[in-house]
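Hi Y.,

Following your request, here is the sequence exactly as I used it, all 209 residues.
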Amino acid sequence: MIPFETLLIFVPAALALNMTPGNDMLFCLGQGIKSGPRAGIAASFGIATGALIHTFLAGIGLAALIAAHPVAFEMLRWAGIAWLVWLAIQTFRSGTTRLQPTKTASSSAFRAWRDGIVVNLLNPKIIVFVLAFVPQFVHPAQGSVLAQFLILGLILNIGGTVINALVGGFAGKLGQFLARSARMARAFQIFTGCVFLSLAAKLAFDRRG
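Below is the corresponding structure, written out as tokens. Let me know if you'd prefer a different format.
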């Protein structure tokens, strides 16, 4: 259903984006430092649960949009490309900041999982990202739009869950390293900006069928 060539582009891009520190990763880091590895890993699964809910709702909406207004999909695609370019510019322009874990209260694994869901669902940037990034790899001519969206969303989510779980599980050592490494933070910013920009350029010039 999803062309192999599409996966060759999507999977590396998804992994690169998942490895870039964001609010979800820093939340897992904070849980791991405060409450131990189990809470850090549980938080990553909470983030994953919230992301799956976001993906499912966005996929339903996108499928309905394409069914009713096929031209709107192309408009959404170019809006997503423009958003990726804007993200790249903002990333390059942002100053170097240290990667500080989110401050969290001590909690059990269940509470960390529950809080992870809430953190993800209440983050409006997640739904914007899902709607800007994933549709670029959806091809209506290849079959069910919803099925493609869910598969790609699941791939993106699996990579993020594994990385966040590692961050949460090894939070003690990672926390000390990330908190004091301003140079590493800047390297992440530059790398992420390049990923956004190159991805936007490729998607803009790709022929879709």
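Residues 37-68 form the longest helix (32 residues).

Thanks again,
Q.
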